[in-house]
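Hey all, sorry for the wall of text incoming. These are the two entities for the joint prediction.
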Amino acid sequence: MKARTELLAASAVVALFAAAPYLAPLVHLDISIVSEVLVTAIAVMSVNLLLGYTGLPAFGNAAYFGLGAYGAALSVQYLGFHFIEAILVGTALAFVGGLILAPFLLRRRGIYFGLLSIAFGQVFYFIAYRDTDLTGGEDGMTITRPYFGIPPAHVAIHELSFYYIALVAFVLALIAFRSVVRSPFGRTLVAIRQNEARVRFLGLNSDRFIFVALLISATMAGVSGALFALLINFAYPLELDWHQSGYFVLSMILGGAGTVWGSLAGAFIYVIGKDIISTITPLWQIFLGALFVACVLGFPRGILGSLAALLARSSAPAGVDPNATFDAHTPSEVNVGP
Amino acid sequence: MIHDLAPQIFNGLVLGAFYAIVGIGLSLIMNLTGTINMAHGSFMTLAGYLAFTMVSRGTSFWFALIAAPLIAVVVGIVVERTLVRPLYKREPFYSLLMTFGLSLMAEEIYRLIWGANAVPFSPPPGLASAVSLGFMSFPKFRIFIVIVLVIAMIGLALFLTRTRFGLRLRAAVQDTEMIAALGTNTQLLYAVNFGLGIFLAGIAGVLAAGMLGLSPTSGNALLMPAFVTVIIGGMGSLFGSIVGGLLIGMAISLTTLWIPAASEVSMYVLMALVLMVRPRGLFGEEGIFG
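and here's what came out:
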């Protein structure tokens, strides 16, 4: 895809989101839901980097997301930190979480990696759940949204201003994400997904690449979690739970694995869809589960991915990494399965 | 001291036996097809609820103990044939995601049928009392649980090592293509293997309902320890699952005695320690599962 077309499309999407506070009421959407879409999209990107690009079943990213959320919430609650500081603390906590878990996850691939991510991710859930004095345990902890800025220039953040903060954060995250996956580093990650053995034969230490990818992923998930806690003014253990990781993975698949814009599309469908369904019926979990099943069986390449595959037949794919068709790679010996 | 410690050690064994049997079921499915069955806990819950319904309709506990898991097996095989099978030739995380969706649906369906709150499911009158062991007394039902689970494990071991079908199953884990080329119907193996895993989960589900309670999420509560069991024991090793299950059962019940708040975290500490010393788990086989 030509750089100019992409820039044009990207500007159009950002402009559309910038106008969302005026557009959302037209379809009876609360602006904070659109904020949630943007914030979630960052977490979905973090999964996309590991799963969509590198091919590692990242089913534990809720751990970093939740660490980000708790980092922000705890620093606001107990240290009286402001908005930006709280986000930095949350992000740092998630980064440290990544540093702790990465050595365990690093050497494993395929389902073993998935199993380890699920299991290790859950440890923080139990800590938050059990440490009732600090975190409020199962009930979670409610915070008042901190001011933005330096003490003399306190600015209270309302839903609208939060939305634009989320938008800026999302655009920055997207730019960072795009530069990572388009860099030689990102290309190597894709190569690892396609055939790790060959990457090693070329003399590259794939473990080291995966280590860095894990840390980037944890950090992004942490930013997302911190923003999320400040969005809903609340941190609760389920943010750390493996269910949450599964929702991120689902969103990634919905949008399209291994695509730059797929994360936004997936987060959009997931968050808005959940919001709409949960207002219609209390049985939304059935629909959500059915969405998982239908998506896996019906749209393995996600919405954008399927669209791109369709377009690829006629012309060049739009907004999609052409290397990113997930199943279409030669299995290397690190992948097992019948 | 001994009066606190001994019952906790026994409780740890009972818990460990649960984790082991659930972990073995997970392992069976994972080893052959690379599927991480996130709906495993849902099948446990299903068997528990089915047994609950049967017993409250007047059937005996003994009948329910066998019949409920068997019905769960039928459901499991239908699910495997229709939903899981198309995913075998795809990346393994697709089946993980799909079964995760199934578990979400199942949880809500159980809530619809049996209500959101826990339902009372008590062991049969003959097993309700406690037995005195001299230095401590211990609920009969828990001893019964251990006996049943041990029988199930021995039965499985005999099936896998002494029957032709069991041998084929183990051969298929080693090399599916070769066993198919030799004329074995591998699809049948997949289905039976899945059913076997669900049967073990079902038995554990009925027994767990009597000991740990029965609610729409009760099976899922056992899923995470079962994952840890498989990791500690080593993927690919069923014997490892038994050892892993007993180890974390002990770890959890002993930390419950001294530091209750850390009871769940203890198994992760144990897992981290084991992985530091043996990255493939205690009995994990080299070369399997990357």
